[in-house]
Design goal:
This protein has one domain: Outer membrane protein (Lipocalin), CATH 2.40.128. The two termini are about 40 Å apart. It contains three helices and twelve strands. A twelve-stranded antiparallel barrel has the order 1-2-3-4-5-6-7-8-9-10-11-12. The protein is mostly beta strands. Helix content is about 10%, strand content about 50%. Strand 6 and strand 7 form a beta hairpin.
């Protein structure tokens, strides 16, 4: 888990770089990276890496009761490995090597006290997703041994996925330093099919912004009367997910030639907590994740941890 020294450094860092001006930005480039190296240099297993690039922009004309509407184009790459990326025997693979490479388009509609985000993705799982090449690149950077066993990865298949996320204000006291929102998330497709629900709590180091104009839910871009304001808060987001299907574990429904597959565990608990803040034209943050085991047969069945580093740059 993130040490208290690291956490104290993060808090000091964003408090120093807070900016108290109000600005209006309508576009953003962002880079989010997931890696278990962000929590421990000795951990390299299961969901081990994710890289996500996106371009977001605010709509000029709003409809009905919308407070804001954000369009997003994005590309992503996710990578999964067994208990160790250097196991040589297929018998030691307690989950498949797998990678998922995709592009997508999403729309976030923000209202006064709730948000609806819909998203569509199209991509590939399997060797065409270049998981082996990506892991070799990352290992070369850190001087780690090259991964072996990618010849047993999930076979090639097309990935088509749709996702809907709904956020509703649940508790908002008048002092605006703390709030709770209810989140429901559902995915349907050839890669992931699941439904999840949980709570998102913000504890503000400065007064919290409404969920319709916050970096917490990527609703901070605008072209109308609203302006982006200073944000700095700690958040906790526990979620319970019911899994129906995961092609990175079970293999594709349309290509059953994968040599190593496992069954998914139907119930998964996912906890994320971290700090998010604004600094000039930037949004920055660090997120710690804990997820209970997502599939059967894992050697390390006590869950998995990884971290996320968030970076967003805003412009007109």
């Amino acid at each position: 888990m993130v040490s208290m020294h690291r956490f104290a450094f993060l808090v000091l860092f964003f408090l120093i770089f807070q900016v108290h001006a109000q600005n209006q930005f309508s576009k953003q480039f962002s880079l989010n990276t997931d890696n278990d190296l962000y929590t421990s240099v000795n951990r390299d297993r299961y969901y081990t890496s994710g890289i996500f690039l996106s371009y977001k922009y605010a709509a000029k004309n709003l409809k009905n009761n919308e407070v804001n509407r954000i369009y997003e184009w994005h590309i992503g790459h996710e990578m999964f490995t067994p208990q160790k990326a250097i196991v040589t025997s297929a018998n030691e693979h307690d989950r498949p090597f797998a990678a998922y490479l995709y592009g997508g388009f999403g729309i976030t509609r923000a209202y006064d006290d709730h948000i609806l985000r819909t998203n569509f993705e199209l991509g590939m799982i399997g060797p065409s997703a270049r998981g082996r090449e990506m892991q070799d690149f990352i290992h070369d950077i850190y001087g780690f041994r090259k991964a072996v066993g990618w010849q047993f990865q999930i076979s090639d298949a097309i990935g088509v996925n749709m996702d809907a996320l709904y956020v509703k204000e649940f508790y908002t006291p008048t002092k605006k330093r703390f709030d709770i929102s209810w989140i429901t998330d559902a995915s349907l497709g050839t890669v992931y099919t699941n439904v999840a629900a949980g709570l998102y709590s913000r504890i503000g180091f400065s007064p919290l912004q409404k969920i319709s104009n916050s970096i917490a839910f990527n609703t901070h871009l605008n072209v109308k009367e609203q302006k982006r304001k200073v944000e700095s808060f700690f958040f906790v987001n526990p979620m319970l997910r019911y899994q129906l299907y995961d092609a990175t574990v079970e293999g594709s429904l349309f290509n059953q030639s994968s040599s190593i597959t496992y069954d998914v565990k139907p119930i998964v608990f996912h906890l994320q907590m971290g700090v998010l803040f604004t600094a000039h034209r930037f949004n920055l943050g660090y997120v710690y994740h804990f997820t209970t085991s997502t599939s059967e047969g894992l050697v390390h069945d006590g869950g998995n941890i990884y971290g996320t580093i968030r970076l967003g740059y805003l412009f007109d």
